[in-house]
Amino acid sequence: MIRTEELVKTYRLGGDEVRALDGVSLEIADGELLAVTGPSGSGKSTLMNVLGCLDRPDAGRYWLGGEDVSDLSDDDLARVRNRRIGFVFQSFNLLARTSALENVELPLLYARAEDSRERAAEALRTVGLAERMKHEPSQLSGGQCQRVAVARAIVTDPALILADEPTGNLDSRTGQEILALFADLNAQGRTVVVVTHDPSVAAFCRRRVHMTDGRVDSTGS
Amino acid sequence: MLLSTLIKTALRSLGAHKLRTLLAMLGIIIGVAAVIAMMELGAGARRQILDNFSSMGTNLLIVQPGQRGMRGVMSGSQQNLTLEDALAVVREVKGVSMVAPVVGGSAQVKYGNRNSRVTVTGSSVTYLPMRGFEVEKGRAFLEQEADRQARVAIIGPVTAENLFGTDDPVGQAIKVKGINFQVIGVLRAKGSQGWFNPDDQILVPYSTAMKQLFGLAYLREIDVNAVEGADLSGVSADISALLRRRHRLQPGAEEDFHIFNQAELLANVSSATRTFTILLGGIAGISLLVGGIGIMNIMLVTVTERTREIGIRKAIGARRRDILGQFLLESVVLTSLGGAVGCLGGTGLAALIGKATDFATQTDVVSIVLALAFSGGVGIFFGFYPAFRAAQLHPIEALRYE
Question: How far apart are CA B386 and CA B392, in angstroms?
Fold first, then answer.
């Protein structure tokens, strides 16, 4: 599913160069449920951005589903994000003043897909929000917002789900429900990568990758 | 993405800040409204003038004093057309069926305790058919009334209403400059011409106007009617030759009069209208420019405010052109709405002015379509840079923006 080779990403912060990724080589098989852990500043968010095709590595190569995506143009990366990756963020990142249904429909509209309404409704049913389709984010609880975000992530039927601290803004019970949702998606054959610093979330995943100072220092299970 | 979805998105985001949206549109609204109102008044005046020309008949020539100088016709600048000139034209020029000497002025007219300042036109009985006037009530002048300087008047319908209200004016006595006149007829309404309302005037015999009212020795103009099918330019040349001889002008000297025909008058109106249109176009351009700068400003603010939304959209697969299109369309919706509101406001304003001042108005579809198209164009032009900036945002940085 995912193979990276010596990924390097450098940021300039003030006058200093920060090596957020310092030679990351990683393989993730189809259907894995994987946690990327590490202290803040260890580069796990940068890794997630590169894996999510939101950012290009400065050096190294990245194959997603067999295709080298290291050097794609911005618009090609947008297409990859749209068709093959679903994102779930810590702060939900839903559009305000836009109903749950329309939020979920959005990736399909960018994909110019047919029956977008129907498919968005189906995704919302999958996450158990059939009753809340017309609600706007401000009328939903945090857990419900995150469910909408999950529905949006799966609506284009991507093989890879990337979640960045998906339970960070939720209480532990709601967080468990969201994790259970990820487990379901994983059971359906989707690859799920969760970036977290929360040990209980990491413990939930079958395999854990730990990062320190831009390097992977353990890939055990 | 479907256009309907994009428009819905644009309306939703504009609706989220209603006051701001309205203020941003105000420049466009005011500019478009002003131009549309002027256009409608201008078109109304123009149509009335043209209607009036056609009611005059096509065989009319008008002789006015004055040289045709570098700056057009300086009419009224010289006094040299006499009653004898007018009589000579009808007597000596072939192809002329009738003439009407015309003098005029403005005078206070009284009936009982009502009074009104109106235009007084002194002319002959031939003036009415030549200028397309009809007598609705009462009768026209008689030939001999001019000869004996009769104190009779035919009044316009607006003057009649001002002085008499609903009473029948025919047979009543009015005072013009303190002199008693008998009203013998009322004209049929023609409608205002914009700067001059032919319905608010009184007609008296030219001799009475010249000798008793205004003390004039010269004519304001001589209206000449050619016979049906006559060669107008030939008749015009013959009149010119006659008047040159009568005014003892040397060969090669400039004429001290000018002869208009309908084609020339129409050309004058067209050129005046063209100048007016160019002027309005300039005003429109400046107001749209100013309005457009306001739009650009507000779109830059919008893009900055919605950086995070742009990040979200990019993360889930929006390409640069999707973002560009979204903000460009929002800007076009903004300016088109402004243009539409401006068109409505302008039409309303023109109708109000028309009611208040008696000016005719005419809704000009072409200028409305143009105004809408230009408003949309302003949206594209001034919305492009903000939309381009939005499209260039890096997804990570946009998502991190607080």
Answer: 10
